[in-house]
Design brief:
This protein is mostly helical. It has a domain of 212 residues. Helix content is 67%, strand content 3%. α2 packs parallel to α6, α2 packs across α12 and α3 runs antiparallel to α4. The chain is globular and about 70 Å long. It starts with 6 loop residues before the first strand and ends in a 21-residue tail after the last strand. This is Amino acid/amide ABC transporter membrane protein 2 (HAAT family).
């Protein structure tokens, strides 16, 4: 009679433990910044965190859900206008109105999904862009919201500048950490396993009883909520809005660039991509249109040389995972291993 095979299922790595420590220290540093940093640095970091969350939301859609959307600017604009509507016209505290903006974006995403989910592949991508243009034109014709010229966030006039900047920054930190943590938890859950299965093969997923359309619908709503929060947060920081700016195509172009160069289908990728994007923007800001041309060239080179992006390539080559979402079966009986010199934690099978 064969002896039972002893094994354990691992869900963390040494890198993830190190990453957790770095994340805690980084979070503590960010929370302390309003007490000693300059206002210009706070505004810059709020913008960077906005793009990081946008990139994570687009990565959730495309990298895990297989939903290539080029119309996410619709929810940026809807979330931002939701903030202005709640704060300026309904008298709700502007900071609370940020979350109302995200909620409004999620609600609007329900009928939007009912329309765009009828389309597949490239038609879905184009369809989301068309819907975003429809929302932009609609906002341009609503007099209450300032029409085509937009309006200022007058609800912030009674709030001291230092308080406004500090609270806005802390909300940005909370949203950024919250959504990265939410994605990590989500992708490690049963829902995340279903989402990963759908990304690998929709047909195989359906054969295993996964409701593909339902999972994608939930992902679309969640991404709309996160994107709406970012829109509200950004324009709370900017204090003024217009339809042209709120529904600008760059709200989806830059996050796509961030995800592509960082590594699609990873949590770490958008973080690396955001650092690269803002580093290049700081270096090339004085070169006008050359800045955008260089961004495009960098994206092309990386896609050709490293199709999985910077972090995707590093992860594949060195098996380095700060946010491991896979489960690994590890044998604990050394005698069953092909090489007895192998360390006990060496995985003998691919991630489940």
């Amino acid at each position: 009679m064969k002896s039972p095979i002893n094994y354990v299922v691992e869900r963390k790595t040494r890198a993830s433990q190190t990453g957790m420590l770095i994340a805690l220290l980084g979070s503590a540093l960010l929370v302390s910044l309003p007490f000693w940093a300059e206002a210009s640095l706070l505004r810059f970091l709020v913008e960077a965190m906005c793009y990081l969350v946008l990139a994570q939301m687009w990565n959730l859609l495309a990298g895990y859900g297989g939903l290539i959307s080029i119309g996410q600017q619709a929810f940026v604009g809807i979330g931002a206008y939701g903030l202005f509507l709640a704060a300026n016209h309904l008298g709700i505290n502007p900071f609370i109105s940020i979350f109302l903006g995200g909620l409004i974006a999620a609600i609007i995403a329900v009928p939007t999904a009912a329309v765009v989910f009828r389309l597949k592949g490239g038609y879905f991508a184009v369809g989301t862009w068309v819907v975003a243009e429809v929302y932009r034109l609609g906002a341009s014709n609503i007099t209450l919201l300032g029409g085509g010229s937009g309006q200022s966030l007058t609800a912030m006039r009674g709030i001291p500048k230092a308080t406004r900047e500090s609270v806005t920054f802390w909300i940005a930190v909370a949203i950024t950490i919250g959504f990265i943590g939410l994605m990590y938890w989500l992708l490690r859950s049963r829902f995340g396993m279903a989402l990963t299965a759908i990304r690998d093969s929709e047909a195989a997923s359906e054969s295993q009883g996964i409701n593909v359309n339902k999972v994608k619908f939930y992902v679309f709503i969640l991404a709309a909520f996160g994107t709406g929060l970012v829109g509200a947060l950004y324009y709370l920081n900017a204090l003024r809005i217009s339809p042209t700016a709120a529904f600008d195509l760059n709200w989806v172009v830059f996050p796509i660039f961030i995800v592509v160069i960082g590594g699609i289908g990873t949590i770490e990728g958008p973080i690396i991509g955001t650092l690269v994007f803002f580093g290049m923007r700081s270096l090339l800001a004085d070169y006008g249109s050359w800045y955008l041309m260089v961004l495009g060239l960098v994206a092309i080179v990386i896609m050709m040389k490293w199709p999985k992006g910077i972090w995707g390539t590093i992860q594949q080559r060195y098996n380095l995972r700060f946010f491991p979402v896979q489960r690994r079966v590890v044998l604990t009986d050394q005698s069953l291993k092909p090489d007895s010199t192998m360390p006990a934690a060496e995985p003998l099978s691919k991630p489940l």
